[in-house]
Amino acid sequence: MPPAVAEKLYTATDLIAARGLQKTKIEDIAKASGVPKATLYYYFKGKDDILAFLFRDSLDALARDVASAADAPGPGRDRLAAVIEVQVAHTMHRPGTAQALVGDLGRAIRLPELASAVQEAFYEPIARVLHAGAADGSLRNLADPESTAISIFGAIMMTAMLHNVIDSEKTQDEVASEVMHLIEHGLAPSH
After folding, report:
1. Residues 66, 79: contact at Cβ < 8 Å?
2. Which of 15, 24, 62, 157 has CB 3.0 to 4.6 Å from 121, enough for a Cys bridge?
């Protein structure tokens, strides 16, 4: 699929998020995105495929950026802050995609490639930096870093999404800093 067509499809995510996939027709997606219905059917079997493509495409881009932040040199605490910044920025940059993902999370995680993409973009990098932070002393040792990573994912996703929904005046950096502040006080090593 040409990148220009893919980019246009993202404009339909606000509609999908507002109505839900069940109540959204291919015609609605075509109109909202400016991509002709015939073109949509050329590339996709139906609206489920369109949403799956958008999730996969968005999560692939996020996974690349998050991996860079998670695998950068430095203490685990700094890398966790960088991962949070990337995830908040991504969620706030494409609010419709994030809302559609949460709205259709049950459908998304039943698709093995999307469940794997969510894990790669969100849980695994957070768990890696939690392990690294425990090893270097910048974060405390956790009994179950993987479960904690899922909780942190929820805090990031919901906080960033809700700031978009309420039209918050906070910047992506401010939101990421607030999420990190909340997490850090629960994860900081005791003195």
Report:
1. no
2. 62
